[in-house]
Amino acid sequence: MSRLQNKVIIVTGSVTGIGKAIAKRCVAEGAKVIIHGLEQDLGEQTVVELGAENATLVIKDLADEAAPQLLVDAAVKAFGKLDAVVNNAAQVGTGNIQTTDGAWFRRMLEINCVVPYLIIRAALPHLSATHGSIINIGSVNAYSGEPNLMPYSVSKGALMTLTRNLGDTLMRENGVRVNQINPGWVLTENEAKRKREHGLREDWYADLPKVYAPAGRILWPDEIAACAAWLLADECGPISGQVFDLEQHPFIGRNPPKDASTIPSK
């Protein structure tokens, strides 16, 4: 039997990238999933890939106050229960103290920290019943962040504190585990597109400097999904309130490149 057999899992932001890879891995491990995103065509394509018997699609902007409960209700209606939530969807964008106004900062905090909290809150009665699991997808930028990723980095730092706080509280009071994955630099569709828009060649990721990629390549979404599958599975045991940094070098304390302006986005 697969280790996620019959588990019902919400994965936000799962029509592309890391979220889609996690949803695919969950189904491969025996789970049923709620696919969520903003692009109807990509969502429908994802459901076809996973099989309609394994996946239900919800298209909804997470800024909508009704979104958290809508996701939870969709899972229970489609599959009868809810075992886990993966808060993967995020607002991504640049900004520093000169370019970030209050509206942009608040948007980052709302989508990247407040919304995951509200989804957890809406899901908690069902997760308590199944002694479920929550994964928040953060970023290694949570510890400080690149110069032009200030509001994004702060929002992921806030998410990390939320994970540690609820990871303790919900485990003791509800039997629900809460953990976080902080990916490093991952080759997603959106990351590839952003780099092409910045003027890099089509295969820019083929020969990256060792300072960024000691292994000669950056991470793949499937490698993030492998960690997520373990955290969602019962074999993870009582582990809760932990943050897992998935990067190929020690992110904190590492000697930066001489030209810090060349540091890539994550």
From TrEMBL:
Gene3D superfamilies xref list: NAD(P)-binding Rossmann-like Domain (3.40.50.720)
A GO term, aspect molecular function: oxidoreductase activity
Entry keyword set: Oxidoreductase
InterPro entries registered for this protein in UniProt: NAD(P)-bd_dom_sf, Sc_DH/Rdtase_CS, SDR_fam
Pfam families: adh_short_C2
Signal peptide range: none
The enzyme's E.C. designation: 1.1.1.-
PANTHER family: EG:BACR7A4.14 PROTEIN-RELATED, ZGC:101858
Protein name per UniProt: SDR family NAD(P)-dependent oxidoreductase
Organism: Prosthecobacter fluviatilis
